[in-house]
Amino acid sequence: MKQPDVIVIGGGAAGMMAAGQAAQTGCRTLLLEKMPLPGRKLGITGKGRCNLTNVAEIREFIEHFGPSGRFLRQAFARFFNRELMDFFENLGLELVTERGGRVFPASGKAGDVLKVLRKWLQNSGVAMETSARVDALVIKDGRISAVVCGGREIPCRAAVLATGGASYPATGSTGDGYAFAEAAGHRIIDIRPALVPLETAGPAAGAMAELNLRNIKARLFIDGKKAAEDFGELVFTEFGVTGPVILTLSGLAVDALRSGRKVVLALDLKPALDEQKLDRRLLRDIDARGKEPLDSLLRGLLPRQMVPVCLDLVDLPAKRTAATLNAKERQRLRLWIKDFRLDVTGFRPFSEAIVTAGGVDTREVDPRTMESRQVKGLYLAGELLDLQADTGGYNLQAAFSTGWLAGRCAAEAVSELTE
């Protein structure tokens, strides 16, 4: 390949999309990926099923990113969920929409997404170097002029930095791009794990490890005040809790813990029943099965693995006859079922986080083009930016959209330079 016009650094979702779009405009495009194959992290997203996007409207979509979501409005206006779905379907990938508007490949295999993307890159004329670790960006007179890779200086007219975050480092996302961006003059918002399992105090969670609860309500309290709540699925682990409802709440918990605040998780195990209905249910069960021990009675209300934990925490003997429960003891049971509390003491490392919070300050990136406001010809895309949402396909759409815009605009800028 002759000297590339555009160099894309990083072969994740954003990088592959950027490289393909730049090449399709006629620019000579080189994709540098430090792993043996591009898209390693994409291959494990959505539990290996690859939740590509969500069918939510733009306004709702942006709300999932919090205050930083406004930055994405321009990228989404150019390339959003319908365009992404059309893109993959035109490449022959059949898609399905599931609960919550989540969009997956119909095969349920992330590998199929990677196959069509890699073939598309090849057909688009992208030159790719794998196992190619970038060492530095070369900036002259405020403009990107080359990329140093493996000791070689490769000249270029534009570059797209799409190295990903710091989550799942085994896939190649080791945070290299933050150093490149900082060296280029960008401010980096403190990075921390996001969409990450939480650690809890005491033996309760460990005693219920691998227990999966559906349709529970989880509330997060910070310094005694309710900060957020969510409804859905939770999984207990040896160290604490995980699952969709926990991942959604984890961002607030991580930031609170990092600032030394007290974090408590309160679980409502029977959100469909208020306390009065739950009490009537207990009374009916006692009336029908009063001769049974409490641990037997409670298996009608709670998963078997949870019963001994419940009885221990409400201080009731497992083999006590159910009919002997008095009103105050029933109240203790009700309160525990409706408000089971766990002190949150920590969070898991980047290696277990789905995405990275923090990153390049988006105020220093032009949202209309993804070009750096610090260095001409340098474009930034994907998880490297200070953008993160909860689960549901939102983060991956942001990667594809910002990659699409960065690749297109980098190519347009190159065309203008050659005119």
TrEMBL record:
Q: What is this protein called?
A: Flavoprotein, putative
Keyword Flavoprotein assigned to the entry: answer is yes
Name its co-factor(s): FAD
RsdA/BaiN/AoA(So)-like Rossmann fold-like domain residues are 5-408
Q: Which domain of life is it from?
A: Bacteria
- Key words of the record: FAD, Flavoprotein
Q: Does the keyword Flavoprotein apply?
A: yes
The scientific name of the source species is: Syntrophotalea carbinolica (strain DSM 2380 / NBRC 103641 / GraBd1)
Question: Upper lineage ranks?
Answer: Bacteria, Pseudomonadati, Thermodesulfobacteriota, Desulfuromonadia, Desulfuromonadales
Residue span(s) of domain RsdA/BaiN/AoA(So)-like insert: 192-355
Q: Which Gene3D superfamilies does this UniProt record tie to the protein?
A: FAD/NAD(P)-binding domain, HI0933 insert domain-like, Translation factors
